[in-house]
Structure formats: C-alpha cells, structure tokens
Amino acid sequence: MTIKYSEDHEWIAIEGDIGTIGITDHAQSLLGDIVFVELPTVGTTVEAGAGVGVVESVKAASDIFTPVSGDITEVNDDLDSEPSLANSEPTGRGWFFKIKISVPAELERLMNEVAYKEFIAD
User: Fold this and answer.
1) Banded model confidence at residue 1, pLDDT cuts 50, 70, 90
2) How far apart are CA 97 and CA 5, in angstroms?
3) Count of alpha carbons within 13 Å of 107, Cβ hemisphere only?
4) Is 118 exposed, middle or buried (CB count within 10 Å of its CB: 0-12, 13-18, 19+)?
5) Model pLDDT, residue 122
C-alpha cells in the first residue's frame, strides 16, 4: 500500500486502483474537536481538487477535497454516529471515503510522507 498526501491535508492510501481518503493528523489537530462530517454520495464521479464534503469542528467548517479523479465507491458511515473518529484515528477508522481512481497519473503530483512533513513544517 502506498500513501500520498495533498496540499489540502488529505491522505490517500492506494491499493490497486482504489484509494482510501481521509484527513491528516495535522489537519485534525488544526480543526479541533470534529462534530460533523458530510461525505460524498457513493456513485458520484469527481474530479481531482473538487470539494466533495465538509468537516465541521467546534472551531470551524472546512471543505474536504479529493486529491484524485474517479468514482466514489464507499463512504465511512461510522462517521455519522461517531465523527470524533476523524480526530482519534484520522489515518485509521476515521477515513472518509474510497474512490476508484480514474487518472492514476494524478498521484504523481501528490507528496510522499517526507515531503508532506516538510510542507507542514513551513
């Protein structure tokens, strides 16, 4: 499994042509306590960079962007009843959605873990 990161603070774990997407630990710490997550609809076709949902915290609301183009294949329904999973396990049980990647070349413009750590250090 390969994990890449976007400048919008989403991560994508790639297995074959399916990507699992969520927000980074850095993003959840900036947001504070997450109280609501609006996820995209399964079956929706999205373009890289598009807003596909919203994360609401006690501090602010923030858009969720998809780092790659494709079709939404699954959403994490656990976030409906337990949005705090995005805080406690942002790269685990707090994932947001899965996407069937339609343009694999888009992955090349995303950062690896080292580059992302440098990006958030600035």
Assistant:
1) confident
2) 15
3) 23
4) exposed
5) 77
